[in-house]
Amino acid sequence: MRRALRIALVATALLPPAAAARAETLILSLSSRRVQITQSYTGAELVIFGAIERDARSVARPGPFDIVVTVKGPRGQTVVREKTRFGPIWVNLEQRKFPLAPSTLSVLSSRDLVDIAPPEMQKRYGLGLANALGADNAEPRFREALIRLKREQGLYVENPRDVTFISGDIFRAPVPVADTAPVGTYEVTVSLMSGGLELTREKTSFEVSKAGFEQTLSTAARQHPWLYGSITAAIALAFGWLASVIFRRD
Amino acid sequence: MQIYLPIAELPVSVFLILGLGAAVGFISGMFGVGGGFLMTPLLIFVGIPPAVAVATESAQIAASSMTGALAYWRRRALDFKLGSVLLVGGIVGTFLGVAFFNAMRRVGQLDLVIVLSYVTLLGSVGGMMLFESVRAILQVRRGAPPRLNQPGHHPWYFGLPLRMRFHRSKLYASVIPLMVLSIIIGFIGAVLGIGGGFLMVPALIYLFRVPTAVVVGTSLFQILFTMVAATILHAVTNQSVDIILAILLVVGGVFGAQFGARAGQNIRGEHFRLLLALIVLAVGVRFATEIAVKPDEVFSLGQVEVRG
């Protein structure tokens, strides 16, 4: 009983002051829940559709709605290394590990993030590439390098024009899946923003997986490495032999 | 036309890889070298992860040395006994090399090790070849007969214990220096993704005075089996062998090598060695600039272990 009361109190405290009436809710739909990597895979694009649901009891907002879509790929340990001059050559001397950095990260929004929320609010809600990375104790230069390198590889994307409103309450955004994106679960978080505050957020996810022949090969490489290695070597030898037969001149 | 590589986990252009295979195959057919020292860096350059490039290249070398070894075997220019002794050492060396490769990859210095080794190896081998071929060209110009190897005294290491007689190679020497040589070359080959023919051939000629006629065939025989072992060991220990990439490289390389072999017959010996020396040196210099010049980007991303 006391516990329920405490939860109720905390919940009330978290609500924006004017939200005694009902807040908006988000309804999301992804064009596909599964991206399959096959022989001809060169990247993919999903589309996320969303509707902002409100009724007569919803609060009237002074400003327009904004949407921020954050897509995080499977997390994994990423190491950032820094080359330093060591005698006549450049060597990787220092390194920082980011144990939970998402392998891919896309931040799509309906406007520039600075126009949607002030920096301290972006940080609080984890909006933008730097904030979505999460906390860690690496020096800023390593974090910046991580983001810069990942952006160059096309794995981290920030695009402030990609969320478009089809009508006042319905929006869409293309979710890019890079050609080098790893397999796993991709988390999609959509934040509904207004007046610099997050009104609500909704999550969904999709899977990237290898399919068919690609799947067979990479599974074989991991689960039957002896067999896989021997078959690769055998194929190579067969081709070598074939060539000597085809081009035989003596 | 793009094709997705299942192990490298990225799409590549089929024609680019076939073309690379053909170009390097042309050079390797022309000069009788494996071409690994050219192919591995090129693959890294087009974006294949270094670990996958090194591991997969060993499969391609196995294929091209198979073709070569068969041709020499038909001409009976292959010493199986010597080749087998070198093979034992080669496999031991490969085993150590793959272990070293995996250890360096874990501590994040693999790139540096690969680059430094390439600079040292290609610089010294290329320099020696350049020196030797220029001297030979000058001698031919002056009209002096090409210098032959003097039979002379046997070097001291022939007399170590475990002497063996290799009839076809006209060699009676201790197995120990042969083992040491092949372990070293096997080690280097596994770490760098090269066959090591360009090390083995001169070593057998100059250090062991094996007749040139049987050297190339024997070296190819040894490389063939060492690279089969390297392919399997890489597949088992680091799962970096990409079978699709390997097949593309093999197909391109096989055709390139045939045309290269024909083109090679029209070049004179000394000029031929000079050209090869220049190619080897050029690759070495390319690597040297990579670590000696201040990089545009001092940061790099390391091995990413994705927890699916």
From TrEMBL, chain A:
Keywords: Membrane, Signal, Transmembrane, Transmembrane helix. This is TIGR02186 family protein. The keyword Signal applies. InterPro entries: CHP02186-rel_TM. Pfam families: Alph_Pro_TM. Residues 1-23 form the signal peptide. The chain crosses the membrane at residues 226-247. The keyword Membrane applies.
UniProtKB/TrEMBL annotation, chain B:
It is found in: Cell membrane; Membrane. Its main location: membrane. The chain crosses the membrane at residues 12-39, 85-104, 110-131, 171-201, 213-236, 243-261, 273-293. It comes from Alsobacter ponti. The keyword Nucleus does not apply. Belongs to the 4-toluene sulfonate uptake permease (TSUP) (TC 2.A.102) family. It holds the Pfam family TauE. It is a multi-pass membrane protein. This is Probable membrane transporter protein. The keyword Kinase does not apply. Keywords: Cell membrane, Membrane, Transmembrane, Transmembrane helix.
